[in-house]
Amino acid sequence: MKHRLSTVAIIVLAILMIASCSRGNSPIKTVQPKNTNSGIYSINVTLAGLPAVPVVNVDTLGNSITYGDSFTYNDSVNAALLDAIWADEQSFGDEYSQSVKMGFNPSPIYGVGVPVPVPAEYGVYPILRLISASNKVVSALLPVFDFFPRGAYDESWISVTVEVPSGTVVSLPQLFINPDKGLAEVEALVKKEIFTGSSFDDKWIRSRFSIRDYVSQLNQALSQTQNYQHWALTAGGLAIGFDPEATPDDPSKRLDFTISYAKLSQYLNEFGNLIVSEIRMPVSKSSVGCVIPMDYTYQYPNNCST
Question: What is the pLDDT of residue 87?
Answer without folding.
Answer: 94
